[in-house]
Write a structure and sequence with these properties.
By secondary structure, this protein is α+β, with helices and mostly antiparallel strands. It is about 50% helix and about 15% strand. The strands form six sheets. Strands 1, 2, 3, 4, 5, 6, 7, 8 and 9 form a nine-stranded antiparallel β-sheet that branches. A five-stranded antiparallel β-sheet has the order 11-10-16-15-14, sandwiched between helices. The C terminus is likely disordered. This is GAF domain-containing protein. It holds the Pfam family HD_5. Keywords: Membrane, Transmembrane, Transmembrane helix. InterPro entries: GAF-like_dom_sf (IPR029016), HAMP_dom (IPR003660), HD/PDEase_dom (IPR003607), HD_GYP_dom (IPR037522).
Length: about 950
């Protein structure tokens, strides 16, 4: 009670409080530190696993790539087309030189289509020579299989020394081997690429390796190589993170492909040697890890055989045929040994700090008192990362007052540093970033003001980018030298000050000048020159990197925009009939999208887009027809039905000329034979008149301007049944492709009687390997296409084309036109778009879809399409309707185009809500004023068009050709 009445002395109270607080803080820091280090080490183990996978992958590629390069060269060697053994042996030096130059290769061999085989093996060790019964000086073994004229197989082994001198040859009657039955042969023969097997134990050399094979360039043979990866396991051993780390390379069947201990990895079965399975390897930790279901690259704790482990697995990229993984098991005690040592050191340091603070607290306890408690609370807030809270107290004690002022300055500086870091990392616009960083820097350093100048390289001039308080700064400065001292003097002269400023150059990673940071000081010497200058220079380095990064991003974006617009201009320039389409559609689409964004209520009231999403849409709009670069020009520009690369009507006219002349010849032959002149003349004139009428009908049908009725098609057939005599061979002077198409057509004897108009077998061009994957059941179709594929790639049949009911395009050509959207999606999905542009392919490739799911190429419905995709559809159709550069139609007026769109909206082919906005916002009128001819700008009855969208309104529909 007496002690309570007297109170507790400040000195032991402060000292005790400091000790207790430090004990709690130290304990918390120790625990947090240990857990943090533990997490860092475990995360580092995961990163190391990924790096280990990359290292092993690189190791394998380092062994395989030279061999694969050699294999590619051998596919061009004449040995692939040689027909007999002597010719093949003449190429032996080439094969041997490849074995010499690449130590990883153990054998090179060639399999021929007739079953013959040639193999060259290097004899590099004595044990292998004994096993193959080779002479002592033998350096190479050549094994061959040849087929004689009777189809019998002959095997022969030849031994050569290192200088390729023949040491002996032995017939091997029991050496029978058909390369065509081997998987490496069949896989390589079917694919025009290098095929690769998983590692296995070579029967002859007992090494671990793999087989690679590739078809020769002439397709006549398959060249194969055995490449050794025997050293991968030993290299893996050197990559262990700790001494007790277990790691192995395992394929999807559980076979151990690589392990540091080769004796455990290989299993002897009688005379054969094979790779061990994971069970046979006898490593419990790896076996347990293989059975865990954990994501790739993520460490997982587990316990096995009374010991704690961290297990990680990463996939190996270079074996695409099967799942190959790197399994890594790290003992927990070894992995966290460093963390425990750090914990012990921290504990010792914490104890030392406690003792020091005890003495200080005991001495200054009475003087600190309440202001110190307040400051302690404020510092605790700082420790909790609350740097925005004001720091400072009023005290008569000089030390406390100074401490309060310093803590206040520190808090303000840290808060400004946080703001600077946040601005550097988040602000995407260069001007806003510079202004924010400079404002915070001026506040943090306590200077009067500052400015940032950026270099204009074209005229070596510094241009003012931003400034904060202080005096007025000149808008630009002309500089003559980029050295630090020269730069500071030139800035001093331009600012007309002496000693009250600090100029620091902003340089990129290549030490190239980007600009200058200028700080206006309070007075000369008010800041410690060296520490302060060093501090500003270090901070300016971060600002310079941020400036460089943003300038690079802006430059790359400008380059991307220019390339995209260049591609769009190239597509427009490719055909004189579609010029400007790729430029007009983005502008129209952007106009309509802006109206959707500006809508404050209704269906689109909640719709909005960020700057990144708007940019993504603009890119997609510019690329919406990039697939047209693959569309044949003669199809896109096809103005008549018989036009291919030229108008084939001229051929048919020539045939009519032949028939005309035949009529003349018949007349004169009749005269010679004594026939009646009047009768013959009447017959000739009637024939001439019929030919003129028939040709006129065919020529008008070729235009494709009117609908072809059944009667018209029947008349074409009757006209085409007329015959004419061909006296010349139609198989000479033609291309290889035409010759191939004529292979299946019997050769008639000349002169041959042919139809005037015909659909011949050679007119139909099959798809072959060019068949596009648009059928929804096609296994190659990974894009979700759902389109009907015409039976053939092209059909040049004359009756077939002349019988096209409307327009000039047949089914195959219309598919080629529509295929551009398929190519657009396929091309764009191959591009590595950044995350904020990932939707570019789908936006660009959906403008031919319809709201009811009847469009193409994926038959999407309205619910499957985003608003930007539906906007693109309306923009593309309206531009096509009003365009004046189409060969197959006249440009339509505003009212005609909008009426067609109204019917399409009513039938759920385009979005009715967006079409309403298109009408009510007047976008069509703004677009028309910019891009349409004056005679197209007629009056539009918006109310009537809106009424047409109602279900009960029925009218004649004529959509025209868009």
């Amino acid at each position: 009670m007496k002690l309570c009445r007297r109170g507790i002395s400040l000195q032991p109270l402060v000292a005790g409080a400091i000790i207790l607080s430090m004990l709690v803080l130290t304990g918390a820091l120790l625990i947090q530190g240990y857990r943090g280090i533990q997490g860092v080490l475990v995360a580092a183990a995961g990163e190391s696993a990924s790096q280990l996978g990359a290292t092993i992958n690189e190791c394998i590629r380092r062994l395989i790539d030279p061999a694969e390069g050699t294999l590619r060269l051998l596919t061009h060697d004449p040995i692939s087309s040689s027909k007999n053994l002597p010719d093949r042996l003449e190429r032996l030096p080439v094969l041997v030189e490849n074995l010499r130059s690449n130590p990883t290769l153990s054998a090179v061999y060639i399999g021929y289509p007739n079953g013959e085989f040639l193999l060259v093996r290097g004899l590099r060790d004595e044990e292998l020579k004994k096993r193959l019964e080779a002479p002592e000086k033998a350096g190479y073994l050549v094994q061959s299989i040849t087929i004689d004229a009777l189809g019998r197989s002959h095997g022969e082994w030849r031994y050569y020394d290192k200088d390729l001198r023949l040491l002996g040859a032995h017939d091997k009657a029991d050496y029978r081997f058909d390369p065509r039955q081997r998987k490496w042969y069949s896989d390589a023969h079917e694919h025009d690429r290098t095929v690769l097997t998983l590692p296995y134990v070579f029967y002859t050399t007992r090494e671990i390796g793999l087989t690679m094979a590739r078809r020769s360039v002439d397709g006549g043979a398959v060249i194969g190589m055995d490449a050794s990866v025997h050293d991968v396991g030993s290299e893996m051993g050197s990559l262990r993170k700790t001494a007790g780390t277990e790691l192995a390379l395992v394929d999807g069947r559980g076979t151990v492909i690589a392990y540091p201990d080769l004796d455990r990895q290989m299993v002897q079965n009688e005379d054969a040697v094979r790779l061990a399975t994971l069970d046979e390897l006898g490593v419990a930790s790896l076996k347990r890890l293989a059975g865990l279901s954990i994501p790739a690259g993520k460490p997982q704790w587990f316990e096995e055989a009374g010991r704690e482990w961290y297990g990680i697995w990463v996939p190996l990229a270079d074996f695409a045929s099967e799942e190959v993984r790197v399994l890594i098991a790290i003992p927990s005690d070894e992995l966290l040994a460093g963390a425990r040592q750090v914990l012990w050191h921290q504990a010792l340091w914490g104890l030392a700090v406690l003792l020091v603070l005890l003495a200080i607290g005991w001495y200054f306890g009475q003087r600190i008192a309440r202001p110190l408690t307040t400051l302690a609370e404020q510092v605790s807030a700082l420790a909790s990362f609350d740097f925005a809270r004001p720091v400072g107290v009023e005290s008569r004690i000089t030390e406390v007052r100074d401490l309060s002022r310093v803590l206040h300055s520190m808090s303000r500086t840290i808060h400004n540093f946080q703001a600077i870091t946040l601005t550097l990392s988040r602000e995407t616009r260069l001007e806003s970033m510079l202004d924010g960083v400079l404002s915070r820097l001026v506040e943090a350093t306590g200077v009067q003001g500052g400015a940032v100048y950026l270099l204009q390289e074209e005229d070596s001039r510094l241009k003012l980018a931003c400034s904060v308080s202080g005096e007025q700064y000149p808008q630009s400065m002309l500089i003559e030298g980029f050295a630090e001292e020269q730069l500071e003097k030139q800035v001093a002269q331009a600012l007309a000050r002496d000693g009250h400023y600090l100029a620091v150059s902003l340089r990129n990673r290549s030490e190239e000048l980007l600009g200058v940071l200028v700080l206006q000081l309070q007075e000369e010497g008010c800041h410690g020159r060296k520490p302060f200058n060093r501090f500003v220079e270090e901070l300016s380095g971060a600002a310079a990197v941020a400036i460089e990064t943003r300038q690079l991003i802006e430059a790359q974006q400008r380059l991307l925009d220019a390339i995209i617009k260049l591609l769009a201009d190239a597509i427009d320039a490719k055909s004189p009939y579609t010029g400007g389409h790729c430029e007009r559609v983005p502008q129209l689409a952007d106009m309509l999208l802006q109206q959707v964004i500006d809508a404050k209520d209704g269906e689109y009231g909640a719709f909005g887009m960020s700057d990144a999403e708007r940019y993504e849409f603009q890119i997609a709009a510019w690329l919406h027809d990039c697939g047209k670069i693959t569309s044949p020009e003669h199809v896109v520009d096809k103005a008549t039905k018989l036009e291919t690369l030229y108008n084939r009507l001229h051929e048919i006219r020539t045939r009519f000329e032949v028939l005309w002349r035949d009529a003349e010849i018949a007349y004169w032959r009749g005269r010679i034979e004594g026939g009646d002149e009047a009768t013959l003349a009447a017959r000739r004139d009637a024939r001439h008149k019929a030919l003129l009428n028939d040709y006129d009908f065919v020529a008008r049908a070729n235009i494709g301007g009117e609908f072809m009725s059944d009667e018209d098609v029947e008349r074409l057939r009757r006209i085409g049944e007329q015959r004419w005599w061909r006296h010349f061979d139609n198989r000479v002077g033609i291309s290889y492709e035409e010759t191939e198409r004529l292979q299946s057509v019997p050769v008639p004897e000349l002169p041959a009687l042919e139809y005037l108009l015909a659909d011949k077998p050679e007119h139909r061009v099959s798809w072959g390997e060019r068949k596009p994957p648009v059928d929804k059941h096609d296994p190659r179709n990974i894009w979700g296409f759902d389109m009907r594929l015409p039976p053939c790639a092209s059909n040049f049949g004359e009756l077939y084309n002349l019988s096209v009911r409307r327009g000039t395009l047949n089914e195959e050509e219309r598919f080629k036109i529509n295929e551009h959207i398929v190519q657009t999606l396929m091309m764009l999905t191959t591009l590595p778009f950044p995350k904020h542009l990932r939707r570019v392919p789908t936006i660009a490739a959906s403008h031919h879809e319809k709201m009811d799911g009847s469009g193409y190429p994926r038959r999407l419905t309205r619910d499957d399409m985003s608003i930007p995709e539906r906007v693109m559809a309306i923009a593309d159709i309206f531009e096509a309707l009003t365009a004046a550069d189409r060969p197959y139609k006249a440009p339509k007026t505003l009212s005609e185009s909008l009426r067609i769109l109204a019917f399409m909206a009513r039938d759920q082919h385009v979005d009715a809500g967006l079409f309403r906005l298109f009408l009510t916002s007047g976008v069509y009128r703004v677009y028309g004023a910019q891009f349409l001819a004056p005679n197209q700008l007629d009056d539009v009855d918006v109310a009537e068009l809106l009424a047409m969208l109602e279900p009960e309104v029925v009218g004649h529909r004529h959509w025209g050709s868009a």
